[in-house]
Amino acid sequence: MEWIYDAWPWYVGGPLVALIMLALIYLGKSFGFSSNFRTMCALAGAGKSCNFFDFDWRAQRWNLLFLLGSVIGGYVAVHYLSDNQVPAISADTIAQLKAMNFESAGNAYVPTEIYGDMSWSNIVLLIVGGLFIGFGTRYAGGCTSGHAISGLSDLQLPSLIAVIGFFIGGLLMVHGLFPLIF
User: Fold this and answer.
1) CB contact at 8 A, 151 and 162
2) What's the CA gap between 61 and 5, in Å, rounded?
3) In this structure, are residues 55 and 47 in contact, taking their beta carbons and an 8 Å threshold?
4) Separation CA 125–CA 182 (nearest Å)
5) Can you spell out the DSSP letters for the chain?
């Protein structure tokens, strides 16, 4: 059982993802978690007031089950199949984060300075960040998993452009905005 507690190497995880993507392509399905929000809204009846949600959500039931399985799988993995929740990061990164007043760096899975204290500023930061992510996902026509995994597997040029944009946005956030916010 010890092998399941550690992170799996790329040469195991990568082919597993590739096999899943090949199966989805063979079945004519496209993968992406953000599309589940549209499906859930259509299921709830939002199609009556907005044309965007007026579609046959039943055709996407498989994706809802995939989402549910991912949530359950994540829960099982965290609570029953792992013994160390703190990711190993370099000493230089820990030092840089501590210089930005993140004292939990290297000791916690997520920064307790943001997620441990639910002050108004942290709540506003999380809400604004969530709105930006939601807007960006809709504006880009999908999320990072949909574009980077499914779209690139289908050799879609818009997905390649979106993934390049995700990387540029991530670099700008980490090296430009993040130091200004914290």
Assistant:
1) yes
2) 31
3) yes
4) 11
5) -HHHHSPPPHHHHHHHHHHHHHHHHHHT----STHHHHHHHHHTTGGGT-GGG-S-GGGGHHHHHHHHHHHHHHHHHHHHS-S--SPP--HHHHHHHHHTT-TTTTTSSS-HHHHT---HHHHHHHHHHHHHHHHHHHHTTS-HHIIIIIIHHTT-HHHHHHHHHHHHHHHHIIIIIHHHH-
Q: How far apart are CA 100 and CA 111, in angstroms?
A: 12
Tens-place pLDDT, residues 5-63: 777 788 998 899 889 888 988 988 877 788 888 888 888 998 899 888 888 889 888 88
How confident is the model over 122-131, as pLDDT tens digits?
888 888 988 8
Of 165, 156, 153, 158, the residue nearest 141 (C-alpha): 158
Give helix 61-80 / helix 35-43 axis angle, nearest 10°.
Answer: 120
Amino acid of residue 145:
S
Tell me the C-alpha distance between 68 and 40, whole Å. Answer: 12
